[in-house]
């Protein structure tokens, strides 16, 4: 098969067709990336000097891979990202920042990270509300602002105005989408920044919202409906602005834990699924583009519902969580879902194994998930700060080495013959 462009490769995967090789993602969305400390160590290991480590996700401290990394590992996807926390994307510039390990990075110069008495940092909005905090010695920001935590009635929830995407941001996204489309053959993923279930947990506070689901379902449903309606209104404007320049629409909603779903399938179907389905079907009807859902954890019991509700692409495929055996996932759902992830375990393999063990692990995952298409290589969630750069290189080089569909088919025939 002749060499395909990145965009062709991703589109083939989405159509469940075998391309020339398995497409590869690193950093095209906020759960497929690399923590900035690990990124700096990777560039130093590769001898890449003079670059800039841009923190495009402040909360998770993620670096946006530069073109030197994109080209080095033949990555196939680029993001069209929403604004950095609290800022319009028309950024006034970048300013130097020092990461917790002492290495350099750049953050938007309109972003104020305020020192805390304990040696950590915090971010506040213009009204002085504490939004995020990082304790001393921490590597990430934690959200702490829950604007509806004190609400006691449905009326209070219905009166609340969720934030909406600004005209300034939409104009920037439209221009940036056109620039990316014209200047690269990479597939472009639209990061909407929109979720429902997670957003409800954030707005009410995680514990309070879970208590609503169990004891005050009318409160939970009112909030989910409020968020779904606003999401659809924002998505209409968003898709009108960028729909012709992106290939995929990404949304998120973590429904799982390490040990299984956060809530029973029955509760999910009754109280959460209708609102997610409203939004996901709206995306498909408005744009015709595939819906990419980021959803962590052991969500095996919920996957049929996710497919029915409109999900086309599932990330991060947390293979170390309960029920998430990749062999079973591919056999049961491989015709309906594109698995965007599951290529390397980030909990144990990447931080703890030797490079050759990482490469062997990647080969096995590719051989499970790639046949028949419907697979984009990505490690399970973000590469953490403690991952050795040698293991990152081993993972990405193995994805290229073992990802050719000719070699995948040859290995499958060899296994049958033995």
Instruction: Count helical runs.
Output: 15
Count of individual beta strands: 18
Helix % is: 40-55%
Under CATH, the topology is which?
TIM Barrel
Q: Concise description?
A:
This protein is of the alpha/beta class and 418 residues long. The protein has 15 helices and 18 strands. Helix 6 packs across helix 7 (206-215), helix 7 (206-215) packs across helix 8 and helix 13 (355-369) packs parallel to helix 14 (389-402).
Task: Using brief descriptors, characterize the structure shown.
single chain, 418 residues, alpha/beta, TIM Barrel, 7-stranded parallel β-sheet, 18 strands, 42% helix, 14% strand
Outline the fold blueprint:
Layout: H1 6-14, E1 34-35, H2 36-46, E2 55-57, E3 62-63, H3 67-72, E4 77-80, E5 94-98, E6 104-108, E7 114-115, E8 121-124, E9 130-134, E10 142-143, H4 154-159, H5 167-183, E11 187-191, H6 197-204, H7 206-215, H8 217-242, E12 248-252, E13 256-257, E14 260-261, H9 265-287, E15 291-294, H10 303-309, E16 313-315, H11 326-333, E17 338-340, H12 349-352, H13 355-369, E18 375-376, H14 389-402, H15 405-417
Parallel strand pairs: 4-11, 11-12, 12-15, 15-16, 16-17, 17-18
Antiparallel strand pairs: 1-3, 2-3, 5-6, 7-8, 8-9, 9-10, 13-14
Summarize the structure in words.
The protein is α/β, with parallel strands linked by helices and 418 residues long. It has a single domain, classed as TIM Barrel, CATH 3.20.20. Helices cover 42% and strands 14% of the residues. The strands form 5 sheets. The protein has a 7-stranded parallel beta sheet. A 4-stranded antiparallel beta sheet has the order 7-8-9-10, with no helix packed on it. It starts with 5 loop residues before the first helix and ends with a helix.
